[in-house]
Specification:
35% of the residues lie in helices and 26% in strands. It is of the alpha+beta class. It has two domains: 88 residues; 213 residues, Crispr-associated protein, domain 2 (Alpha-Beta Plaits), CATH 3.30.70.
Amino acid sequence: MMYFSRIRLRLGKVSRMAEEMAKGSYAMHQLFWELFTEDGKRNFLFREEIAREQLGVQPDARGEPVYYVVSSTRPRMDHPLFQVVEKVYRPQLLEGDTLKFELRANPVVNGKAERKNPEQFLAERSKRDVKDKSKLTKRRIRHDVVMHEQRMFLQELCSKLNLDDQQYANQKKGELKQLLLSQAGQELDKNLTALLEGDARYGDRLQYTLSLRDKLEWAIKARVDEALEKWMVLQGERNGFLIYKNKYGQIKLQSSGYLWHSLREKDKQAKKPGFSSVEFTGELKVIDVAKFRGALFNGVGRSKAFGCGLLMVRRA
């Protein structure tokens, strides 16, 4: 049995909630843990919205948060901070259904990097039954899709414009941008113009007078949008749906609202603890009912304990 809940603050609890939210994303995770968990395992997904935007003109709906939650257990109804309305969640689905959706997700891609001391690592794991020991010399890492694509795009432009000798390890994105703008000049302008002319979303920007810096920013955005689109299409392949395309073959998907969420209160030793989120909206077509139901119940992507992954759908 699954449940869908709408959770709001009880009257007079706004100041208390503000205190909790000031502690960061991990504090909210702990509060929801109190509401739903019974056996020590997370069994819920949640999404935060603004009450006024969701509930319309109501005397008690202002700028405070409202939460939508999918869970495998019924929520506590007696929590001192929250007012809860819940119902059994039984989505009626058929193969071929077209649905509008909203998703706040943490888009990441996996990569590999060289270990600092591969010999020591292999020595410590010499007893492992691994046929190809060379695979153990690399460690798996996760890249934030947005940040990774921005850096990759800037590095590729530098290489294409013969600026490799001025790049170095761990160079910041701002430094790469400045290198391109100060050294590439006319060649950079030609490349950016060609890229934007071939982009269906941002090509019309070229009818306006754009500075070289503006062209670079729009080209970066086009590259990031393409990467996020590929990430979302892959989630569909894994979870039983296709992103809908219109009669012109254009994919019905928008991404916006990139935001970094700090989790320093959870892991103070990490270099930059936290996660990013992106807002996806669009239309999808159900192609595998069982897999899609799993996506509705179990979420899409990572950071599900911190407000990502809940797929909100309605009939198109």
